[in-house]
Every structure is written in C-alpha cells, then in structure tokens.
Sequence to fold (193 residues):
Amino acid sequence: MAKERCGITHFSSRLIRNLSGGYRQRVGIAQAIIHRPKLVVLDEPTNGLDPNQIIEVRALIREIAIDRAVIFSTHILPEVQLLCKDIKMIEGGRIVFSDTMDAFNNYVEPHSVLTTLLNPPAAGELMKIEGVTKVDFLTERQLRIFFNGDQDITRRIVTTSVQKDWQLTEITLDKSSMDEIFAQLSNNVPNKH
Fold:
C-alpha cells in the first residue's frame, strides 16, 4: 500500500542508492507511512524533486494528512502556504510565529502594487497620486508602486491611468513574501548572547 501511494512499486527490486534523488524522497515517505502511524514527520519532502514529482508529493502529503497528523518541516516557504493549515516558524530554537495559515496571511499586509503600463509616465508623475510613497521601475513598462497602507490605492492608480492614458494592462497587490516575513520575525527574536 505505501509503495503504491508513493508511486515506487516499479522500483521494488532496485537498490535505493541507484535511484534518483526524487525517488529516494518517495521511498523515505513510504517508509514513514508503511506502519500507518498517527503522526508523520516529513523533513523537506519535496527537496530534489522535479516539478511533476513535487505536485505528486504535495497530493500525497494532503492524502496522508486526512487520517493522521503531519508535521512538515521545510525551508521552502511557498510549500508551507500550499500545504499547511497551521504554521510554526522557528528561528534559533525559538518560536517566532505560531498560528493558522489564515492568520499568517492576514499578518502579511500589502505594501506595494505591481503594475504594467504600456505608456508609463515618469516616476514623479506617479508620486503625485495620493498615498504613493515610492516608485521602482522593474522594466521599461513594469513598475512596483509602494504605498502607505491605504487599500484604496488601486482604484486611484486605475482612475489616474485612464485619465492620463498610461494604458494600464495589469495591477496586482504585492504582499511581502513569506521569506521577507520570516526574516522580519527572526530579527525580532532577542539573541541569547
């Protein structure tokens, strides 16, 4: 059953050392679930997998989590967003965040918008929009516009773009990445020294 769930039945007669890194990961997951434990601890289970294998292992982790608790340890923070309901961030042996994934996502407040303007103005013109604090040109037509927390900023940017024919084709609220939040939370942990 564990071999089938992990997609490794066709490698039953091969030595583990002769398998690719991705299949070694699958063997490790099969070993973890073979005796149907109530708790499974997975350390970096998608490490070394190709994109298709990552999708399969994510599905397997979700399936495993239906009837048992799964502790998932990873440094690949987007994996946390895709797989976890609860999150505990640990830095230097101390918990720096402990709550639900929803609470974490609410903690991550947008601070900029990513825009594509086919006819962009100079940065100074964008700075005239109420609430805009900084403008970075990422490419000739793609910009990151920072704002002061005012959620109405997207409406003002769209309205101004239409009025001034900046030809806005895309606008997206940009939240801090999990990596950035982890770095912020880690910096708030006092050193033991």
Summary: Residues 109-175 form a domain with the Alpha-Beta Plaits fold (CATH 3.30.70). The first strand starts at residue 39 and ends at 43.
